[in-house]
Amino acid sequence: MKAMVVERWGERSKLHERPIPKPGPGEALLKVRSAAVGLTLLNMRNGSFGGEAPRVMGHELAGDIVETGAGVTALKPGDRVATYFYLTCNRCRWCRGGRETLCENFGGFVGVHRDGGFQQYVCLPADNMLHIPEGLDYEAAAMATDAVNTNWHCMRERAKINPHDTVMLIGAGGGVGIHGLQVAKLFGARIIAVDVSDEKLALAKEWGADELINVKRTPDVAAEAKRLTGGRGVNAAVDYVGHGLTFQAAYDSLATGGRAVIIGVGKGDISVNPRQMMLTEKVVTGSRHSTRTELIETMEVMARGLIKPVVGMRTHFTEIESIFDTIIDEKLLGRGAVTYED
Ligand SMILES: [Zn+2]
Fold it and tell me: Would you say the pTM of this structure is higher than 0.70?
């Protein structure tokens, strides 16, 4: 079978010929039909997620089960499934308590700590394969597994969005942000979209943003957020970029009782004034991916057409590097997608 292999972290992936893997106990073999592509993969390819190379990346996958290993009863050949990104123990207090992304025996990530799906077939733990509901196609299901479910968790559990809220999204035009916009809209919020280019902001507008801030023209984001909210500030600010500067802008934009949520993987620090924080009950928190249950819910909501995949570029998986180049040039609008037709 064909596989796109990163031989050493930091290098481009190359086409290799590999044998089709055999599922071990507790595993299943997936014939991949679609995969989603975003910035996270470039961070993985640079080695910043750890793991060992050579490695086949690809963690946002949908396809068909073709074979199951010993002890697997929940899946059978022909089942349509999407994959869960995190390798969790399913036994610790966090896993059992429904917060498995905080797993204390965390085994790493699909496509980083074991081979992912930029190959025609991939073996993964059966626990990482969830059935795709009727009416949801492979491409949308693949998008659900990171670009959308991450937002489902964020907006409901961390940012705690309700219809009365004004929500600011920093990086709203990116591959995760543009789906976050749809999720926040679904919860009824008024949306202020923040990004660095008019093209990305036009996309955000198209998907329902109420107000737009281009940071290149309006660098004082917090002042603009206050102006757009009658001086009060926003009830929640979600930072998809994840630099110290962007998260500081998120925090500084908050109204009394507001929630600043970091979702992007970034660098830097922010400063908060403890007295002001006490007096205003502002919340600073993170949002880490999604649980399996939230992924199931995400796929069901998408199957009803309430959130739609935003695909800016589509190629065959053996051309994956062309999507990476487009992401590096900051030209990708929405998410990338790869196909697997022979
Ligand atoms: Zn665990």
Answer: yes
